[in-house]
Amino acid sequence: MQSLPLALVSCVILCSVFTSLFCEPHDGKCESLVNGPFEICTTAGYNYTLPLPKKLTEPVKAELGQFLTTVIKSWHNCSKQSVAAAIECSFMIPKCSQGKRVYPCKRVCGELLKQCMNTTSTGNFEIFLDLMLSSCLSLPNEDPSSDKCFEPPNFTTNNSIPSPLDRGCQNLIFPACKNLGIYSHTLFSESVQKKMYKLYYNKTFNEDDLEQKFPKRVEEDLARFPKCRKSIEKLFCGELFPPCFPEETSPMLKTLCRSVCNDIAKDCPGFFRGHFTDSEYCGMLVEGETSHGYCDRKEWPLPFTWLSYLPNPTTLPPTEPEKKKGPKGWVIAVSVVLTLAVVGITLAGLIWWKWHGRASGMGYTKQEDEKVTEE
Fold first, then answer.
1. Which one, of 126, 138, 252, lies nearest residue 187 by Cα?
2. pLDDT tens digits, one per residue of 67-100
3. CA distance 331 to 154
4. How far apart are CA 349 and CA 18, in angstroms?
5. pLDDT tens digits, one per residue of 103-134
């Protein structure tokens, strides 16, 4: 799978993560995946999903199913198809049991990260894996026998190798955020922080010559909205380098508390008009108040939140001859949601686009498929 522009990532995340109100209610029933466009998800070990929204017409389903298959298979360079499908499908076409969503067990994501971090830890893919790690901390830390989560068929884990999910807090070394003194640890590795430093400043991380200020565009916004300076700094650092506190026994993904976001919207409304819609962004944040301004995010986006990115079916391009067919732009965009919004990175992509101003992609490599038997 080819790398995708970060601007596209940004737009998709903005449109997908913020739109939980677009999810349609269902009657408690589940819908079969067998012999359908999303049958690839049965390799994750389940045959039923939540009732699909009416906006998903048959042509749209066919396109999405085709590309979802490509996305899942692209993980094969470092992981089994069943494990990748369990994570990818759980966001787009989640498992359904008795009308309710069932998440993959935490150790499934841990095994995916373990395999891929040990074999493919170069370039922007390493950043993506740390983003995934952050969100997977919120998955049920249970055994499938508890019926609180599921594992793919024939799932095994190598307990002799520690899971990245258990690595704990990492030292915060990104100077501008470290200098705030709000938190000194993050969920992201020092290696990833150095890569992001280079993305922002276009220079290698060198301890003898570090940029202490925020990137230029961030500094411009801080100068325009001095009343909200501290809160905007918290927003930027929290989304790009999720806070981690060593005293917590089980670190969770933390994002800006809704109350802090509401303060920005109230005191500096022009800031959100220049970047994103305050009502959408603040509305998706966690309620609560803490001394540092960050709250635990304990759940993934609601089912089918990605759907709001799709255009009206009547505006889709006409079907092309089979020999000329390929993933359409909106299908590629949704694939980004599958691989990024599922990991709960919220506005990270949007902030990269707006304040960094450079295009950057995250790609996958591929190896031969493995057939998995259903349970």
1. 252
2. 888 888 888 878 889 999 999 898 889 999 999 9
3. 31
4. 13
5. 999 999 999 998 888 665 556 778 878 888 88
